[in-house]
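Hi W.,

Here's what went into the run:
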Amino acid sequence: MAEAAGIKASMAGASSAGGVGSGGPRTEAQPPPAGPPEPTTGPVAESTEVMTVNIGPHHPATHGVLRLVVDLEGEVVRDLKPVIGYVHTGIEKSCEDKSYWKVIPFVERMDYVSYFFQMEAFCGAVERLIELEIPPRAKYLRTIFLELNRIHSHLVWLGTTALDLGAISMLWYCFRERERILDLFEMAAGQRMHTRYFQVGGVIEDIPRGFEQKLRSFVEDMPVRVGQYQALLDRNEVFLSRTKGTGIVSRERLLELGVTGPLLRAAGEPWDLRKAFDYLAYPEMDFKIPVGTVGDNYDRYRVRVAEMVESTRIIEQALDALPEGPFIAEDRKYVLPPRSELSTSMESLIHHFKLVTEGYRVGPGELYYAIESPRGELGCFVLADGSAKPSRVHFRDPSFVNLQAFRDMSVGSYIADMICSLGMLDPILGGVDR
Amino acid sequence: MPDAPGLELIRGAIEQDNPGAVLDTGFEHGCASLAIDPEQLLAVLGWLRDAPGQGYRFLSSLHAADYLPAEPRFAVHYELLNRDRVERLRVKALLADPAAAVAERTDSAAVGVEAGGPAGGAVAPFSTPPTPRQPQRDGDEGQLLPEIDSCVELFPTAEFQEREAFDFFGIVFRGHPDLRRILLPDDYVGWPQRRDFPVGGEPVTFTYNERNYG
Amino acid sequence: MRERQLRARDMLRGDLEGDELERYVEEKVVMTNFEKMLGWARSNSIFPLTFGLACCAIEAPISIVTARYDLARFGAEALRASPRQADMIILSGRVSIKMAPVVRRLYDQMLEPKWAVSMGACSSSGGMFSNYAVVQGADKFMPIDLHIPGCPPRPEAVLYGFTKLQRKIQGNPDQGWRQRYGAAGTEEWARGGPHSEPSAEAAEAYLAARELIGA
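Here's what came out:
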């Protein structure tokens, strides 16, 4: 474990100082401590030199461009300051310049692994502002895609985090499933990522023929695959010893810090916005919320893996209950008319023209709408001033707020545990930086 | 959300202890909001968090908005959540721009009282302008920045979010342990998400035309 | 098969003579010049840098090294974390103004010969983000050898771009549409090449600026 940490730190810090070593003499391989380690004897205890190490924005681990300024005493983390902003894109400012329709591809690219959730947050907020009711088929379709995206996000998380912890094969297996999900997205929306599939009023297109069969076969296979992942990791000694008992933050402290999502549920708090607030088709779905007990990294891993299985159940139920009907609302003031009508109806043509050139106007108002993304509470605040462009779009991104808990997770533990906690924290820097 | 009568009850209860704190209530699209005097922010937030029967202990989001050209220009929004009753409440603290007040000191009496505008009619701006205070912190060009108390003591989750509001709007949070830019480079000049800051970027250049046709 | 083994044995013993030897040499031995061989070797054993910025990073470097779009079949499997050991950097994602000096530093730390691939619309030209926070194209601060369009480009597109880069490394760049439409003079070279020298006014201004800051 000390070796892995040394290598990891030296690889990670290479961009800044051309190689880094931990301050003070390295201890021999110790059995992992039960709680936060306090070296009381031996060479590490006598070393009082605190060395500031920059785990620079260029990581070997693919968590994005996060910079951590870590004060290390030996291998124990004494203080930690995350420096973010390296992929700040000014999306919120750009959105003020675009009509509502055009904002949707922008906000998709914030948290670039769970793109459907940003679309849902924004479209849901605007729909509530204009008080537009979406048809039931659209609700179910949105639910299906949201849950598929949740599985996709958890697969990316599992693959990359297991890679960090040394279980390299997990990457290949998780991405094999991910390719199937992306095939489904491509089938329905034409693009693997950033599909621009949700629109204000519903979804942009109905699912094609053959989608349902493919999705059903995926849903049947998925629990088996999750079982395979668990078989790889659940009895892996190294994985267990690295994740059990590390990165513990108490439930109260997490709530104070505003942390939501699997991190909070792993600490024992059964808080899930899908159950708390009724939105889309979730009230009609029967699913459980996995909740952990201790709140260590192992619990976070188990919670997310169980969530993947629950998501497959939701998709199955939604597929079985998928109602017929229109896939987007009929209100032509906000929704494009179907192209077949353009050649016959003058009114449709005028609506189409207005919507495409200027866009629809959203009356003055402001609204905050939050949904449960794979990382926690994703909230969208839209301030509308009556024109065709939003006056302010702000996203309360879960990774941004969860990052504040990272300090609590790592201070007092080894740097290797810090890397493990970083993986289990699941930050996506696109969402953190926006 | 607390429904409209519930919202009025909350307003009444706050007003008992902190008179003049709540300036307006709004209830639209199923969302409840309270507009408060920024000076009494901590008292109101503390009451909402701790008073028995309230329990808005979770701060979902803290963000700022720029209502230019309406006065007062800035607002800091606090999205509170009561997890026991599953209710959301928005608290808005409206801040005027001291730089504008300094520039237009002669026109201060004419600050409009229009009920419409970006706030959706739910919140009336101040009918009298706030007295300009001497701010303790200057912006990068010596401009005056709006100030408000930091609620990090009450809600530790506000730490990063207040830094973000400072970074983008230049709103100074008094009492914040480490108020500096978070997402933009440390030496950046300007407050990008204010409405009068340009979006930026550059126009597309066609180098063939430039090279051949001057 | 047996025949080939016998012939090889004869050749090694020195038993092949005359025409047989000529034929053998033509079949088995490749004659080339050193640059071509070097180009071939370099292009088929590229060590990419594990560098991901934003959404394109999920497609590359993660997705193209996975089993479906295997980058290993092009010889580029060994992704290196340290820029000192890598020779290709794929800028996968939007380059924000805070990250630009970091990217430039990474690029400078890489050793020659090195290639930079700008993947996706955001690093090629700023993409959809024409605002204050994104550098409008990584061309602004570092030389780029290959641009791959897309948002995000499909992994197949990245691999196609990769094969084009391989051809470029081998000294045989794929001219593409310039060949088809006879537009030979329209290239813009990042370094080397006809238009990569600054104009006289720009060079003067640069020197004046250096004096001004006392460098």
